[in-house]
């Protein structure tokens, strides 16, 4: 239960929502802007492909590792306090990225930036749910939140392209600084402090084992060192054993006894792995193979981004009326069709064909987010819905990391056939998760999760 923040006026609530959305703006734009900058960074810093992959993956892996921890720390020590720390660390990391003299320095700065980023979105959402307590006003606030994701994703490539062509790749990190400064001032002046009256215990060992599993898996893929996967398997086995015995685990493994939840997690990994590989490989293709400018690249990304922007709210309405299956079927069909079409991508592929395929991919991806979140929290007790949603969010970041890692292990048509296979898994999981058997597994899990567990530090 959240401590009360008192009755706040409408204007103050609006300012708080704007403040929280500013953090979402910079974190959502970061993915597409940085991908557009990758080819220029490659040239300026003489970076090999593996180091370019780490620019993206060190950020997404760190987010995946720390999202749930940041949420727990905010509940325990204060959401406003951790949100401000996150903004400061993110700004410092962005500044260091912009002055990076070497690719290794840039990767280190991206790591610091991600530590700050992990304290932004989950904590901002906690602030929103604490401030907007009415059902309708909370729904409207979350709707605005979702719109910011779409707008920032749509504008990111074009803004990034203009900045890169005008001021260099460093400018994609400069843009974060004034936005963070505004958010810091507004947070200090208007956001009330709040904590959880009964914060959950901290599972440090589970946290470290999860990090070891994710980093060794991606390291083995990027650096082409299969022997590392022995450590990955050991970390996973130790994680599963530890989590099954801990009174307040980092991830409650009982969630996965619900097939709809397990399928939502796997769907998130598949969909976002496809997205991560798409963004990374297409940027190198457009600027490296086709020699398009950063602005031209940003314009070609727009059909994909607009497809996501338009069809994300449509998917939300479809899920509310018909359940998750229709959206997942549409998502899988469109993403698979786009990936199959891109297997024939060549140096002389007509631009109109690229635009059509990018738009198909964006429409498909726009349909997938709402059913993932809905399936993850469906049937969960109210006090566990946040944790279930956090697992889904973590799975998204893991998926992006794996997708980028695949871009080194696979090339050309082989990569796109793999993306097509990932996309094809989405409707298959959607159908399986909407069967009577799947519903029965979900219904059996809820009573288990309602059992109280003791605090553990």
Description of the structure:
The protein has helices at residues 10-44, 49-77, 79-98, 103-117, 121-131, 135-167, 171-174, 176-190, 204-223, 229-245, 259-289, 294-322, 325-342, 351-366, 369-377, 382-409, 412-432, 436-449. It folds into three domains: 1-196, MFS general substrate transporter like domains (Growth Hormone, Chain: A); 203-246; 249-445, MFS general substrate transporter like domains (Growth Hormone, Chain: A, Up-down Bundle). It is globular, with a radius of gyration of 21 Å. The chain is mainly α.
How are the SSEs ordered, and which strands pair?
Blueprint: H1 10-44, H2 49-77, H3 79-98, H4 103-117, H5 121-131, H6 135-167, H7 171-174, H8 176-190, H9 204-223, H10 229-245, H11 259-289, H12 294-322, H13 325-342, H14 351-366, H15 369-377, H16 382-409, H17 412-432, H18 436-449
